[in-house]
Amino acid sequence: MAGRVISALLFLALHCCLFVPPVLAYTVLSDHFLKLVPSGGDDFDIGNGKLLAPILIPRVAGTPGQTKAQEHFVNFFAKELPAWSIEWYNSTSTTPVTGDKQIPFANLLFKREPPWVREGQANLLTLVAHYDSKITPNGFIGATDSAVPCAILMHVARTLDQFITQMHNEMSALGEGGTVEMDMGVQILLLDGEEAFQMWTDTDSLYGSRALAERWEKSLHPAMSFYRDPLSQISMFVLLDLLGSANPIIPSFFQTTHWAYRAMANIEDRMRKLGLLESAPQRPFLPDSEKKASDFGRSRVEDDHVPFMARGVPILHLIASPFPKVWHTMEDDGAHLDMATVRDWAKIVTAFAFEWLDMMEVEPKDDTKSAPAAG
Which residues have a catalytic role annotated? Predict the structure, then answer.
């Protein structure tokens, strides 16, 4: 018995030190389930859509637009998804253009864990976007950068919610849970301060993500928790950025998470073959499924994943590369979005989250039980 306890302790210690994620089940959705994944429909309308329209405004840190965006996110989760916890992670920093003034940055975390888990017990699919917009040019909105990704993640959370509740209820009734494989959760992380205020450097960019990664690294869970800190709970950090223009090309950046990229690419391929997507791109959004190991190199695209990846967090980076033509111009607004592409991304990312969370366990038996969302 003592030997077994010591072995268990050594395993936990090694896991915590090395950030080795557990092997998780990944079950693909049936064609029937794929057909039930909603697109969001009119909720992405640029004029009065419930999810997107309120954040098609300048959202620079420390301005009224920042506050309006925060209110939009918090009110949505508080009113429509009350089972999700809401956490604020605030920080301040000077910038090259604001002198000694401390600019406020606020990261927002919306989380849904199994109700039986203790602190540091659940592994968490982490879906991420930044919600701030660039300070120049004056009046810049940043529809692809990254209002659309934020709205997509709101749609994903809303679509998942009833299925998460059903799964938790069924697991509780069966006395399941309490194992690494079963204690899965999901969190939506909306980051502030991604954009540079003057010129992109290591210190003038990623204000929110740098502060949060450092904070989580130092936030240790209680002794004997399976996960050492919030960083090690992240099963996958899926970062959305620069999405919403037609004909996007999303490379596979990291060999270590290429399997997850292939899973999402397979979803896109199956949905297109089933006639479930609206757009007609020149090539798939995710064209790198067959990328060879020898073709991977160091990614030169810096984004909010960098401080987390430096601390061992697995990253799936969904960013258009090359960047959209509207990148950092006044044309990155609602009028220049390709709405079919936006709605298709909403479907693809939602289906990926369903698969990651093993939602085939609660597949609806008929078409009348699809998620309560437009589209």
Answer: 194, 241
